[in-house]
Amino acid sequence: MILTAHQPCYLPWLGLFDKISSCDVFCYFDIVQYQRKDFNNRNRILNNEKVVWLSVPIEDSNRFNKTIRDVRIVGDFWKKKHLKSIELSYKKAKYFDEYFNDVSDILEKDHKFLVDLNYELLIFFLGTIDINVKIVKASEFNFSGKKSELVLDMCEKLKANKFIFGSQGKDYAEVDSFKEKNISIEFQDYKHPEYKQLSNKFFPNLSILDLIFNEGPRSKEIILNNI
Asked: 176-195: per-residue pLDDT in tens?
């Protein structure tokens, strides 16, 4: 069984979906510590050939010492702003009308915790681009250890014989320990594809919103670089 995992992200980029498509089981890693200046609660869209950040406000109190599953969203004033920014950015995109209402419905829900919002968005995007894998949440298990040890423990408890790391996994993966357990590993090396955007030049590494609004049903083959 091929396993991969990733922490919850807001409106994720294409590389996450490429990694998920390569596995049999995806672990929604909701037990990690909240990351400073990461993509836990923010991501980027394209507005009039300018990159715009959308950030979900979260509680300040001790957030960098909390696991991400315990981080609460603050208020709902941001929802209207995000939806308006998305609409202004993509209302002229070919497939905007096909997906915007669904995205709007999710964002307007009363999610108390960031992980719940991100999870529902992830499930929606996976369904939209037709990627079907089993999903489990790390918080439902008792994984132990740190960094490489934690990943290895997850592989053993979920009975995986292969794990796909992100590209940064090379910085901490203890390769020999996986070999000892007969678990093969792979490091993702995602080659970002180009696709049609509402722009005269291409901007990579944006939220998947940019792709689905512009390319619709072709999104999966584009993510997998099968253009």
From this structure: 999 999 999 999 999 999 99
